[in-house]
Write a structure and sequence with these properties.
Length: about 280
């Protein structure tokens, strides 16, 4: 595996790969790899002739007061893990290489970015779509891999790729969970043991919500009340939002009578956690 630091090095590498007619997979990450990242990497390595992983803690997707400064980083460990998985290129540019002096261009996906996390993280998705477009442009992958844990991010990226006619297949991969159900996230490392226990209210309340819908509850309001009452009983966690939305438009639904996504975000201490569960009703009908 080679570690490349600049856009020009990646472009030169991409030209060589094109000459070989090899298919290229890209796994965009912010590093601090956990099993969730590794599942994306394994899938890319299995699917594509050549796999690139980008590792860049993108400052433009963090808001003021968020955890940009403390975001977990361990480049040496990430390099070791990626190379063990068979990754060909790790692209780890310095910030100045992605956002040069005078940088002034942004990509904004409308509508899908206004609800859910967009309500609480102004400018976040603009930062995500801008960096993802830049990465797709530099690496020019045939496929790019993202986790379904960030369900809204995945939907927004799919929309951008479709709207801008990008020639890249976006592959969404299932959320990887700890044995007790907590979705894997680099931010879990911030949690104290007490907070780690309290964080379970997030996956458990969403599982309860899914079960209610699967057993016939059609009122989104009633399902969400059940989520809120679980949070009310957990003093270390505060619910930021819980919503039941259409899987494609991300618009809230009132009746759970088709496929829906239940999505939520909460704060455990200063740590913001998100999770979601898809409920498939169409397949059952
Ligand atoms: O999901 C992430 O880790 C980031 O949002 C991404 C897609 C790598 C863009 O910085």
């Amino acid at each position: 595996m080679v570690v490349l630091k600049s856009v020009s090095e990646v472009r030169a590498w991409r030209r060589r790969v094109r000459a070989d007619d090899a298919s290229v997979g890209l796994v965009p990450t912010m590093g601090a790899f956990h099993q969730g990242h590794l599942s994306l990497i394994r899938r890319a390595v299995a699917d594509c002739d050549v796999t690139a992983v980008s590792l860049f803690v993108n400052p433009t997707q963090f808001g003021r007061g968020e955890d940009l400064e403390s975001y977990p980083q361990d480049l040496e460990r990430d390099v070791e893990l990626a190379s063990r998985e068979g990754v060909d290129v790790l692209f780890a540019p310095p910030t100045a290489n992605m956002y040069a002096e005078g940088y002034a261009t942004w990509v904004e996906v409308e509508r899908l970015t206004t609800g859910l996390c967009g309500r609480f993280r102004a400018g976040h998705f603009r930062g995500v779509t801008t960096i993802v477009l830049k990465l797709l442009n530099v690496v020019q992958p045939d496929r790019a891999y993202f986790g379904e844990k960030d369900y809204q991010q995945l939907a927004v990226i799919r929309r951008m790729v479709q709207d801008l006619d990008l020639e890249c297949e976006i592959v969404g991969m299932p959320t990887i969970r700890e044995p007790d159900g907590l979705a894997m996230s680099s931010r879990n490392a911030y949690l104290s043991p007490e907070q780690r226990r309290a964080a379970l209210v997030l996956p458990r309340s969403l599982t309860k919500a899914r079960q209610l819908i699967e057993s016939g509850q059609r009122s989104a309001g009633k399902v969400l009340r059940a989520v809120k009452s679980r949070f009310a009983a957990e003093p270390l966690a505060s619910l930021q939002y819980a919503e039941i939305v259409d899987p494609d438009t991300l618009e809230p639904v009132e009746r759970c009578d088709r496929d829906v996504v239940i999505a939520a975000a909460c704060l455990v201490g200063d740590t913001r956690l998100i999770d979601n569960q898809m409920v498939k009703l169409r397949e059952r009908a």
